[in-house]
Amino acid sequence: MNFKGYKGSFLKVDLSRGKVIKENLDKKFAQLYLGGRGFNSKLLFDKVNPAIKPFHPENLIVLSVGPLTGTLAPTSGRYHISAKSPLTGIMGYGNAGGFFGSELKYAGFDGLLITGKSKNPVYLSICDGEAEIRDASFIWSRNTFETEKLVKENLSDKEVRVLSIGQAGENLVKFAAVINDNFRAAARTGVGAVMGSKKLKAIAVKGTGKVEVAYPEKFIQTVEETFQKIYEDPAYPSLSTYGTPFLVDLAQESGGLATRNNQTGVFEKYEEISSHLFREKNVVKSEACSACPIHCGKYASVREGKYAGVKGGGPEYETVVCLGSKIGVGNLEAIMYFNLLANMYGLDTISLGDSIAFAMELFEKGIIDEKDTEGLKLTWGNEEAVTELIKQIVSREKFGNILAEGVKKAASIIGRGAEKYALHVKGLEPPAYEIRTAKAFGLGWAVATRGADHLAALPNFELLGYPPEVGIKWFGTPKVVDPYAIEGKPLMVVWHENFAAAIDSAILCKYSTFSTYAVKPKDLANLLTFSTGWKYTGNLVLEIGERIYNIEKLFNLREGVGKEEDKLPSRFTHEPLPEGPGKGQVVELDEMLPEYYKIRGWNPETSYPTPEKLRQLKLMKEGSFLNKERMEVKE
Amino acid sequence: MKKKILVVQPKKCDGCKICELICSFTHEGFFSPSTSRIKVVTEREKGLDNPFFCLQCEELFCAEKCPTEAIVRDEETGLIVTLKEKCVRCGVCVQSCPFLAVSLHPDKKIPIRCDLCGGDPQCVKWCPEKALYYVDFETSLLAEKRKNKDFIGYMNFIFERLKGAR
Fold this sequence. Notes:
heterodimer, A: 635 residues, Aldehyde Ferredoxin Oxidoreductase Protein, subunit A, domain 2, B: 166 residues, alpha+beta, Alpha-Beta Plaits, two-stranded antiparallel ribbon, 6 helices, disordered C terminus
């Protein structure tokens, strides 16, 4: 079958039987679910039922790209990797840039479907339409940098793209990441641990093929216009110059710089972790992902002092906060070191930082002491203790073995009231931004299908200081431009979630789309139309996104995770911010939720999608397991 | 006519490979880095990105060992070209170019190299970092050299190579 935009082929890998087969991509499936996140979520829904636990051999790892991947569409070099999450037990996924995604497309595939479990460590090598499962004993127990280097040597090809797990994934650390192209991470929800459970150490890919689009002239013209829009985007200068750490400065100014396990929103040592200092002292150069004109990635090094010699990609904003202010570390070079360790061992820097922040607050409150930590003094900002703890988490030794389970399970192991300080939604630790100063983000975390997730909605709209007229135009109310207001936020979140799901499926980066909306749904529709030759509109793009969001919701409902889990830790809903510009703020979640469900077409009593909504999204069959009584809205 | 060449300031390159994609699109009508006439060699672990392309050398390293004398300089444009009817697709030119600037087309198996897009190089136009320049060979090298320290090392290297060839 000759698809434009797509390659028309999926690779199925059964690690138990050691077999690989190629399967055609179904046209209807592609039209309903687009690619990337859409493909992954639907395939997980179809093939992974509640009886299959995250480390069961039948749990699937799906890695997909989309109809824009490998083209010159700006920021299109991404892939999406999903599995049932060992951290949360529900829909899990990560999304990363670099060059791996594009290379997979040049190698002839729209995605990989990996099932089973190998007896011995293996890696998967893909080259121009062919694939092979190879022995990985020579890289097992190596870190991700060594793995990437050794795989390239093993294949005698320096240009092969490698995705791998580090020791954290091998040791089933629940928030282990997948690392590609040295410093790019698909980190959240522990997909790396699922790879570890399957004894799949790495995936190498090399492609010399091509990606064809249906209307080359129109496509390249639209791409050129999109480049221009990105260059004119007000966020472009900051992102390209400072990279994502520029958000650290914005967060501090608005009182949203999460500090000491979110006890406050301003950090007294903020100057020491600011992006200006980073640029001045450490940034060497920009490192872009495939087809990206923004190049927010920064290659940085520590030139002198205690951490001299540390070098590599990042750290990104999330990392600076989660392994910085959240654990009281006011030293950018220490953060760079922790970031390097996380990349090497293959860890999610968000969940890692949050787990340490959780332990430090327990230590501060006297719930745990040096007996529990076997001598580690977990005081705020204790860099040596953090370094030691990261190593313990990776190797699952001593107190680190408990934190390696993530904060939710760690709290239940520790007991003694530790739950109160375990910040998570559905088992996933929260990202950097302090949501008490950004209410749409708060709602977004509570309802996101993979747990506390800023990227499910990413409603930056409320933070951009738009005039009220813009708020009326986009979401029908002037108040929506105020980050502290809750009016209009449910609609804002639903719109963003739907669009974001389509973006994660196309796949583009959220920095070309959501930083200040350079690419809108109709722009994405144009790129998709000229790439695939199928007619897309802005509304159709949003409808596909809505379908994807609903299939993820159905997956979670089938796992028994429903409305009672759409909540936030009480710190965010009941403890007002004690100081700073956001002083006194909490997230009024209960006031936003009913309206959110209503706009979603979900029953506000149960959060079940209504039959009408499922019919509209062509998901009747998928939703047939739901209790009919609980779907109907009672007047 | 005055010879114009493509030059690069490698320190500015951030390895996005937009040049490779627009090159393959311009020449082939699809996206495929392996058909690109410009090649960005990256070493991410060291933070290095270096674009390579045909420098339109004075002495033709690629032509030296060509068994069929298929590589010539086009009198009119000054560009180095492979005569399709003479080329036996052996790939010796790919091996002999010191600048990694010649490659074999993965489908057609003929050697491909930069043709400066007929005087309007698309990579220069699309490079987000403005790391690529299309300059007058004789004059602007010196001008650029005076302006920028990074430029000197790389251009001296090429210049020495070219000078030695004369």
